[in-house]
Design brief:
Layout lengths: L2 E2 L12 E4 L7 E3 L8 E2 L2 E4 L8 H8 L2 H10 L10 H5 L8 H45 L12 H13 L8
Antiparallel strand pairs: 1-4, 2-3, 2-5
Length: 175
């Protein structure tokens, strides 16, 4: 596997889109740092012409189902799919006005914020469910889930009866 650093021909800047073109194809990521980093050479660097298309609009569009279908349609190879750069250049992207792009980005980011909040709430609920399940099992083992009949035998007596019957061969155990 080849790793690329910034070179004269492969220079990235904040706002550029990195797009995987080999292997796990079609994954877009926006460059959001000016810190140097290395990346695999099978990643295309896409530079948005901001007078026509916003970087974030391009990012979200490249992650869309429409683009994923186009990527699969132009991909070559069998063991490892590759999007040729010629195929990448021919992707068809809907290009609304810059104002519409800004609104689409604003709405998409608002939805992502809601999704993040829902994920946090889900994680909290999952932890509470785990604790509730443990508490319920503890109550069940203590016999606190339903009112107990005082005439019932304690579980310890029942277990002793089962052990006794097993030792006498009246109850067979699974092997």
């Amino acid at each position: 596997m080849s790793i690329s650093q910034q070179t004269r021909n492969r220079r990235y800047e904040i706002g550029d889109i990195l797009f995987t073109v080999t292997g796990s194809i079609g994954i877009p990521v926006i460059v959001d740092t000016d810190e140097p980093f290395v990346f695999q050479r099978h990643i295309a660097i896409l530079k948005a012409n901001e007078s026509l298309i916003l970087s974030k609009y391009l990012l979200y569009t490249l992650g869309s189902e429409q683009i994923q279908k186009q990527a699969l349609n132009v991909a070559t190879g069998t063991a490892q799919l590759t999007i040729p750069l010629g195929g990448l250049r021919n992707f068809q992207i809907q290009l609304p006005s810059l104002e519409e792009q800004k609104e689409i980005v604003r709405r998409a980011e608002k939805m992502f914020e809601k999704i993040d909040m829902m994920e946090q709430e889900y994680q909290k609920a999952a932890k509470l469910c785990d604790r509730l399940e443990q508490a319920t099992l503890a109550k069940a083992f203590r016999g606190d889930l339903v009112p107990q009949d005082p005439d019932d035998e304690p579980a310890s007596v029942l277990l002793e009866q089962v052990k006794s019957q097993r030792s006498k061969g009246k109850i067979k155990t699974k092997k």
